[in-house]
Amino acid sequence: MKWDIGGAPALFLAVLVAVAVFGAAVWLWPRLAGRGVRPVLGRAGLQLAITLTTGAALLLAVNSSYGFYGSWHDLLSLRREDPVTSGADASGRDALLVRGTRSWRHAGSDDPAVIGRIEAVTVRGARGGLSGQGYVYLPPQYAHASAGRRAEFPVVLALSGFPSTPAVLIDRLRYPQLALDAVRAGRMRPAVLVLMTPTVAPPRDTQCVDVPGGPQAHTFFARDLRAAVSSYYGLTRDARGWGVMGHSVGGYCALKLALRTPDAYRAAAALSAPYAAARDADTGDLFGGDADRALRDDLLWRLRNLPQPPVSLLVASSRTDEHQYPATLEFIDAVRPPARASSIILASGGHTYETWAREVPPALEWLVGRLSPH
């Protein structure tokens, strides 16, 4: 039974405790109605207990709906990998550790030969000095492919938002399930999916920025992760075979990775993405006070003021309940050749998993359709 913060049993237990505490308060309140120190302290204690237990149940319910944290370790930022030593293999072969496999079931089968295999991995960066945990989905065709054929598989890096965990990409947005269905329906070629969160220096939200004197998050995703995954699984290193997509902050990272490092990712899809890095308590100063660095990570400014690379970009938004919608229209209008822009604009939606679940299938198929490994 899953008692982690993201599990239904934990939420059920929290609700049960909250109801029990409320019932106890109703039962005991008449006995604490008198004056004096003890009755006053008793009433205060009951009110505090009701507030804490009800608040905990509400927070777990919100987390269960939005998938911010998958475990208590994620919440407390205790699950961190040891920093990479200077002797790490920059080729990537020794930079990826498979921690195990994730059991899953789809379309009536749990056989990896039929539905594919999901491996839990840790990627350690030789260049950026960071590490990140996630999943790699290997389609069933991968297991039977020769070494040469494996190098022809498109590779998609899918990023969650912040705060979040890679598990939401499987449990809520169903990337492997959707990829399998699209392949079976003939709408998409088999592709390897790398499922991660952009938070590689928890608890800080680095927004995929190489922070001066701090975490080199852009380098991790543009260089280290690609080298590690391609080397370990025998996949292409050609940028034309690599795409990146994500929602919210993950979408901002996807667009920025393609625009700033087209030699790493040749196509990107962003769902409900902001178009510039935030500055708040979670991010801190990501640019060391350097206004020029901040401008170059403002994607609208970048499109309007710098040469555009030969990349394919897709942005998704909705006309109502989405505050990024006006900026999305500006982004589309600012794209010029050799860059190309496509869009998914819903009539209604918002910054929610329900909206992203509608956008992921066409965005994923669009992205894989623009990847041509050579």
In words, what does this structure look like?
The protein has 374 residues and is of the alpha/beta class. It contains 14 helices and nine strands. A nine-stranded mixed sheet has the order 1-2-3-5-4-6-7-8-9, sandwiched between helices. Helix 1 (8-28) runs antiparallel to helix 2, helix 8 crosses helix 14 (353-369) and helix 12 (299-305) packs parallel to helix 13. The model is unreliable at 77-91 (pLDDT under 50).
What is shown here, in short?
40% of the residues lie in helices and 15% in strands. The protein is built from 14 helices and nine strands. Strand 2 (117-124) and strand 3 (131-138) form a beta hairpin.
Report the major sheet: 9 strands, mixed
Which band does the percent of strand residues land in? Answer: 15-25%
Strand ordering within the main sheet: 1-2-3-5-4-6-7-8-9
Q: Helix share of residues?
A: 40-55%
Tertiary shape: globular
Number of strands: 9
What oligomeric state do the depicted chains represent? single chain
Compute the CA-based radius of gyration: 23 Å
Q: Kindly report how far apart the N and C termini lie.
A: 45 Å
Tell me the number of helical segments per DSSP (H or I, 4 or more residues long).
14
Structural class: alpha/beta
**Average pLDDT over all residues:** 87
Unreliable spans are 77-91
Order of helices and strands: HHHEHEEHHEHHEHEHEHHEHEH
